[in-house]
Amino acid sequence: MAIAVGAVVGLVNEYRKITGARIFLGLRTSIFTSMLGFVFAVLYELEGGYLVFVTAFIVITIIAATIYVERARVLKSLGATTYISMLLVFASGMLVGLGLYLYGIVISVIVAVLSFYKTQFLNAISRIRREELLALLNLLLISAVILPLLPDRFIGPYDFFNPFEFWLIVVIVSLIFFAQYVALRVSRRGLLAFTIIGGLVSSTTVTLSIIDLSNRSTKEHQRPLAINVLLSNVPLALVQVGAALYITAGSAAPLAYLWLSLTVITLSLAALAIIERERVSPAGLEPPSTPLPFRRILEFATLLFLITAIAKVVSVAAPSYLPLMIGVGALGNALSAVIAVGLLYSRHLISAQAASQLSAMSLAVGIVEKAPLSLMSRDSEFRKIVSVGSLALAAAAILLTAVPL
Q1: Residue ranges of the domains in the chain?
Q2: pLDDT (0 to 100) of residue 76
Q3: Contacts for 106 with CB less than 8 Å, ≥ 6 apart
């Protein structure tokens, strides 16, 4: 096994040598390095004590450093990638010798992959623009630094405001906008993929980002953009079904009255995608000029927050009106409404038929809310397609729920 983990890296490096790369860590050197690590691991098992480990890494560091210095002198190159690779191959051999086969193999494969794709990585990095890198850093800042620092508690009347939840909405909206930019930057036909994948996270946010794209696009792109808003309801429905099954521990009883409407909606949208397949993901659709338009992100995040906050106030102020509470709660967050319905059913507080009807209502609200949101678009064709399509799909979700399967 020690020979194998060394050979994986060695074979890749030998191939790179054929293509012109100057690398001292070839097949034999990689195998010997891995076996040296294996020998020290065996000595540790026989003798015990951390002195063996210290000696092992002193030895491999001296060997690798000597080779690195000589290579730097001859080739006039200060790159330390191969030097680090040698240390990692040695560590892989030691892990195998200690019986940690999985860790040794994983490290060896990662080293081989990173070595082989070095040129591709460098080419990809060279194509990154300054504003794209800045947007990525800002995204990491707001999600990995600012978000964990905010207090996760409600303040104000009716627990109206939660700093953590508000900023979480900002992060989600930012992710959707950045994903849209990447999808269109990588492929000018990436709109449909963005719609489906983004819809799994938040179809409402996808709608808002497509509306923003609509206001910057030409007339010929308005119909495909509007159709993509309607297609975002497919992942919305799938996520709701998955959430309902998970909350009810796999029970399909609450969905018995919902299957027909879900089937009709999904098949209708699939037929629409097939009919419009030439235009549903149009070529030449320019990505946004800014990968992370923070001003618009804050505007949309505030809108989403106000929708969900008002729904929360209504649910507290009028707890006896369950349909109203679920319907209003589905605005901006249909998934949470379905989870609430699933919890009510799993606790035997409502019947399966009532759960189906409430789930259908939350789905209908999640669909129909796209109609008023479409008014934010400046294009009349876009507004017409989204409004008519959303109202028709929402009506199907409600009317077909009464028929059990």
Answers
A1: 2-124, 128-402
A2: 67
A3: none
Handedness of CA 158, 160, 163, 168 (dihedral sign): positive
Task: Name the amino acid, one letter, at 129.
Answer: R
Q: Which two tokens stand for residue 157?
A: 């009347």
The two tokens of residue 202 are 């938040």
Which CA distances in Å does 51 have to 44, 54, 103, 162, 286? 9, 5, 22, 53, 61
Sign for the CA dihedral angle at 240, 342, 338, 335 comes to negative
The answer to whether 208 and 228 have CB atoms below 8 angstroms apart is no
Q: How far apart are CA 285 and CA 190, in angstroms?
A: 9
Backbone angles phi, psi at 142, to 5 degrees: -75, -25
Virtual CA dihedral for 9, 14, 20, 21, nearest 10 degrees? Answer: 30
Helix axes 233-247, 334-346, angle to 10 degrees: 20
Can you give the pLDDT at residue 383?
93
Distance of CA 128 to the CA centre of its chain: 20
What is the number of other CB atoms lying within 10 angstroms of the CB of residue 201?
A: 17
Structure letter (DSSP) for residue 110: H
pLDDT tens digits, one per residue of 33-61: 888 888 888 888 887 777 887 888 888 88
